[in-house]
């Protein structure tokens, strides 16, 4: 059994005000070509196919066209789940009809676990789609007491395992933050005021776990528990990543061997460093001058419109990284609010207004409210 | 050949701050039952399936579930087009895959006309899906000069006819305002500063024209050119309508006979008139007191919280109609801005600011801008 594992396409992503649709179409073209050449028995896409609940129309068209090519032209069964960025209802449109054509798009947690069986010469492999869902949704849908993310996912994986015949090979397709995984800058936190991570033990019993959420390809708690990573770099913190797709071979005993197949972006995301004049001179002969670039300038004094000048040779220079000693020192004493959670921001605001910290009960009440707002926001698809 | 013709479902509609999803699910249940009992050879849904480009998630689920039941459970080919309320790209998601399961959802004007052939004992009938599109889109997609709505639709119907074998029976499925049709209050105008209506002659050659847009069931320029009307009353102006679905029989020669099959709403939309005390007394024994109600009070003097009192017997009284002579007279001298088009509003604003009317060139420039904004708004799915 050979299958492709990918995740975190984030179609409709905007990167420093630029729509990445063309870049995404470019890399998905490679993915479709790979599906055609590698002739996998199945394809799994482990969530965050869109960047937001209501993606732009071009992203909807791109996903529809790509999935149609995989299912109809390549004739490969495709299993897609919703991630925390996707709207379960929107993504799941027409799922029952699409499934008749090998396209299994699972947006919401279904009333019953419905593993997708794909057979090879050794018998069936059961792909268990486990879309991302908040604990409250799992509690309601499954009628369980699951308090947090780990308990909720445990209930879902247990249900999935129970739906697979004993002894059969099985693959989980899930969207979660497994303890020990390394985050990049471009993931959206899964939980506010709660523990979003889950132990790898929740996936005990699966022969392979196809994960989505973390954007760097990596193992998490075992060689067979993997993040495929995003197909493109979605932040400058990912400049050093090598983006890829996992090509997984599952043998008769369920032993998985993974090959990372590299993807080539239309434009790379990278950081350059040097003196302004030096960079401008180098850019003139840079074959990849249209890459998405963050620049760190070594020049000591003030510069006149350095970004404008750089843009003439690097048209997609998007960001300037400051690290002049004085600025860095100033930055160190300042809190970067973008790195604070909603709960932390509220606590800071409360302290500033009242002159005292939150009591434990107040903090819990605030966390509850923030979670409720977040849930409502996702529900209305904002 | 027997087929069901419906249109203007407007799923996700909000009526005086009430979400109508439950009412829509109720009436669609009847529609599915009808499809099961009448055993039609096809079903056509002529646009405005959603109320807006980005419908709420529950509307997406309801449409997906309803279409799945029609195509999979009833096993009837379904042809759906986008109306002016729908987002062509969003509605068209997965269209190529869905079409393999008899579900033909046509959001965008396709690169080529693709009639759907459904056969009976007399041979095939070609259903030609013609989704709503603005003239600018038609010009670009078909490479024609079509200046206005009529020219654009003429180009589309001509292309559709050319794709059907000569002599074969054919049915157009379109979303348009045919000259002479009677509008209700709940349609959204198709054009700003332009002529949105089209002559019935653009549909010459079709044996039946299944129209959407106008919410009252009616003929338009011929017995075989029909609006099915919306399945529910979407304004109090429609209180007198009898909502229905058209059950069409097309004989061997292409002659159409139409039966209007009535639909029963979960709650009716109606207007009541009388003295407050009278209405309150009557409401106590009204078996349909939970209908959506607009009330016109005959009482002469001031009343203390009449709507609050009425709500105790009519929980869904939503609107008070004023027609006291003094108020009516005052209203007559006032312009109702809600009934003015964007172009009229801008002209009034311009006159107020500058003290003079718009020149012809200025009016044309303004109309162009308004149209461009409207198009952009629909594109971003706002």
Written account of the structure:
The structure is a homodimer of 382-residue chains. Chain A has 382 residues and is α/β, with parallel strands linked by helices. The first copy, chain A, has three domains: 2-262, Metallo-dependent phosphatases (Purple Acid Phosphatase, chain A, domain 2), CATH 3.60.21.10; 269-324, no CATH class; 337-379. Chain A has eleven helices and 19 strands. In chain A, the strands form five sheets. Chain A has a six-stranded mixed sheet. Chain A has a six-stranded mixed sheet with strand order 7-8-9-12-14-13, covered by helices on one side. In chain A, strand 2 (14-15) and strand 3 form a beta hairpin. The first copy, chain A, starts with a strand and ends with a helix. The interface between A and B is medium-sized, with 30 and 30 residues.
In short:
Chain A is an alpha/beta fold and 382 residues long. Chain A has three domains: 2-262, Purple Acid Phosphatase, chain A, domain 2; 269-324, no CATH class; 337-379. Chain A has helices spanning 21-38, 57-73, 88-91, 95-99, 135-142, 149-162, 276-283, 306-313, 325-333, 342-354, 360-379, and strands spanning 2-6, 14-15, 18-19, 42-46, 78-81, 103-106, 116-120, 123-130, 169-175, 177-178, 197-198, 208-212, 218-219, 225-227, 244-250, 256-262, 269-274, 292-297, 317-321.
Distance, first to last CA of chain A: 40 Å
Major beta sheet summary of chain A: 6 strands, mixed
> Proportion of β residues of chain A?
15-25%
Major sheet: arrangement of strands of chain A: 6-5-4-1-15-16
Query: Would you count the extended β strands of chain A for me?
Result: 19
């Amino acid at each position: 059994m050979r299958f492709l594992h990918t995740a975190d396409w984030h179609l409709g992503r905007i990167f420093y005000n630029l729509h990445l649709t063309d870049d995404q179409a470019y890399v998905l073209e490679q993915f479709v070509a790979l599906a055609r050449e590698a002739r996998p028995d199945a394809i799994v896409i482990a969530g965050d196919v869109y960047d937001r609940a209501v993606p732009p129309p071009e992203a909807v068209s791109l996903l529809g066209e790509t999935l149609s090519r995989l299912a109809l032209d390549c004739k490969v069964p495709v299993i897609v789940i919703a991630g925390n960025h996707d709207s379960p209802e929107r993504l799941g449109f027409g799922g029952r009809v699409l499934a008749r054509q090998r396209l299994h798009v699972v947006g919401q947690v279904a009333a019953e676990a419905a593993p997708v069986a794909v057979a090879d010469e050794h018998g069936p492999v059961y792909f268990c789609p486990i879309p991302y869902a908040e604990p409250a949704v799992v509690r309601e849908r499954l009628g369980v007491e699951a308090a947090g993310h780990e308990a909720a996912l445990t209930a879902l994986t247990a249900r999935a395992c129970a739906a697979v015949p004993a002894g059969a090979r099985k693959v989980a397709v899930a969207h979660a933050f497994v303890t020990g995984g390394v985050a990049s800058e471009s993931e959206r936190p899964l939980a506010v005021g709660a523990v979003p991570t889950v132990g790898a033990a929740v996936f005990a019993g699966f022969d392979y776990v196809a994960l989505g959420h973390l954007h760097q390809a990596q193992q998490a708690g075992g060689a067979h528990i993997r993040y495929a990573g995003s197909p493109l770099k979605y932040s400058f913190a990912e400049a050093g990543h090598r983006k890829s797709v996992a090509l997984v071979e599952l043998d008769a005993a369920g032993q998985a061997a993974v090959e990372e197949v590299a993807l080539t972006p239309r434009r790379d995301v990278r950081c350059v460093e040097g003196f302004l004049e030096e960079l401008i001179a180098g850019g003139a002969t840079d074959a990849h001058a249209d890459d998405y670039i963050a620049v760190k300038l070594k020049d000591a004094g003030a510069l006149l419109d350095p970004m404008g000048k750089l843009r003439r040779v690097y048209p997609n220079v998007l960001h300037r990284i400051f690290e002049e000693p004085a600025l860095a020192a100033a930055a160190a004493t300042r809190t970067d609010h973008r790195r604070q959670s909603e709960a932390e921001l509220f606590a800071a605001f409360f302290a500033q207004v009242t002159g005292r910290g939150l009591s434990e009960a107040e903090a819990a009440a605030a966390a509850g409210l923030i979670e409720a707002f977040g849930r409502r926001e996702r529900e209305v698809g904002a």
